[in-house]
Amino acid sequence: MASPLSFGDCFLICKLCWKLAQAFTSGRNSAPAEFREVENQLYSLSAALDGLQNVRGNDVATSHAEKKIDDRWSTVDKILLNCRETLEHLEAVVKKYAEVDQVRDMSLPRIKRWSGDISRNWKKVAWTKEKGDLTALRSQIAAHTNSLSLVLATITNSQTGRIKNQVEQSSKMLREIYEWYKENLEGTATAVLQEKRPAAEWTTTTPPSPHFELHVHTTQGLQLVCPRVSLNTHVLLADDTTQRQEPFPNPFICCCCQPQGSLGGHASSVKAFQVTHLTFPARIGGPEMQWTVEKLVDTSVSRLVSIRIKRVPASFVAEFEESFIRPLVLRAAQEEVLQGGDGSMTVYLQPGTEAADPCILSIAADLDKVQPLVDSVTFANGQRSYRRECVQSVSMLQYSSLVRQTVGSAHSSIPFLKPLPHGEICITFEQADDDTQGPDDVMQVLVLLKHDTSPKLNQGNATLKLENVLCDSFSSSPENDGTGFRPMDVTFQLTTAKAAAELHQHVEEMRMELFVLKLVRPEEGEEDILHLQATHVQIENEVFIPAAELTILRHAESGKSRMIIATRDKCIILSQSLPYDFFSPPDHATDTGAVEKSSPAPTWLVQLEEGGRRRVYRFECGLRGLRFRNAQSNRALELARQAISGGLPYRPA
């Protein structure tokens, strides 16, 4: 290395990684399924580079004398140089095998499509400078990401105090990380192309998209249109509203057995559904992964319809939401912002903020059957109560806030949907036809539902009571609208005990949705202090994950830590509260690298079964014995403990 990498060099490496990740995203529709893992890993590497770039920028302010003592960056530079070589080689591959469109932004080339040559023969391509295959490339990117994450944790913790022994300790840690990193890279060099394979083995075709059920809403209820529908791989729902074209393409294709070129049976019915500017999707609350898509056009009858999508394979749920649901949601949000309206039930603008980030409907309970059976609603606060009849509608919804997240460089950001920590029960009352309607009569009430809200069902009286929930009311008088949220007891009176039990079930399902969101995402006050990629994760005899992302979160105020282990497709998500001594040296370790810690905490496991049904398991005493089947991952976790422990104050469990 002729000279150390500068802050600008780090910025350029980060920008290159982000640009390559965007390239894989743009070319997704014409790429083999194996490319998706590379795309995901490039985004993870970009985030690690971005974090390191920020730390390195802050470190520039340190004194020149201290820089002489602190030789930590020389080790980091070696990792960054190897990372740059990997990315530059990949950039050359992208330029060779992709059609690039530079019209929109000359600084961020975007792939229009991969060439047909790479789609057929991608296994022949030398993806790494050592002529490694796609598996070798993924392994190299994972090694870069893990090492940079460990480096970031080490340097961040050492910056809590500028003491000589801290600097020396972090330098020692960085040298250990680099040795581990070199061993990882040497391991990836073994996965090279085998040139003597028959040419026929190299030619592959992209497998068909997984299929699901498609139903349409009719006056008689849901009607099955096709049991084997898949997403049309040629549909590209552009996030940029300036790129929309008419007519919108058909998003679905029928996968049932039909003669070649024939549209007999229900294939023509599937083909008739097309997306419009008004189309909006939302997931239906409950253990079954289902989505409703409102306001598609059925071209066979020239009218807007609503459809229901069921039985999406578990391994395809994340892909389905990313490729189809998310673009539709973002388009609807852009439409609302451009129109400058007050919003609707699907998209509304948050009041009281200059940016006015829109809130977008994410989950909706299916209350079509139980809603007409709500006879009245009573609101009570202390000794005062207010009973309202003539219920027009009841809806139970959960929203996400659309924010922009800077990734890769200061000039690149992506829209990010951040789920709100509560649900909303919106109760609308009918307006009286006569003069008995007063200006202060409540016309609509908004009830906030949280994961720890405790509903009380009384089947004998056919009532459901929500105690101490926040409510806001809106009347027919504009000056009395939105008086502010106040705690109240809300009691729903239904016509039958069965209806009360059904409403109770929907409330419980929405509470579970909110609880799962709390488990799988950082809570308010939690910060991401470590992110690693690991293979062959095993916890006792209960859980085995072939490839996973491991994230450790720490609460800024309480100091409590939590570990999330998730598969890429989010079929398995494990949330484990960590004892305070988790980052201290282990009490003892087995020959396989298992770590046994004291004071086990509860563990939650969220799992999607095939067919799209979600199950949630609780392990009261936690899952002990976290281990990896390969030594490199075990060593990475041990290095992570050492890197983090230096910056954490000890707290008794």
UniProtKB/TrEMBL annotation:
Keyword Signal carried by entry: yes
Superkingdom, natural source: Eukaryota
Keywords: Signal
First and last residue of the signal peptide: 1-23
PANTHER family reported for this sequence: NACHT-NTPASE AND P-LOOP NTPASES N-TERMINAL DOMAIN-CONTAINING PROTEIN, SESA DOMAIN-CONTAINING PROTEIN
Protein name (Swiss-Prot/TrEMBL): NACHT-NTPase and P-loop NTPases N-terminal domain-containing protein
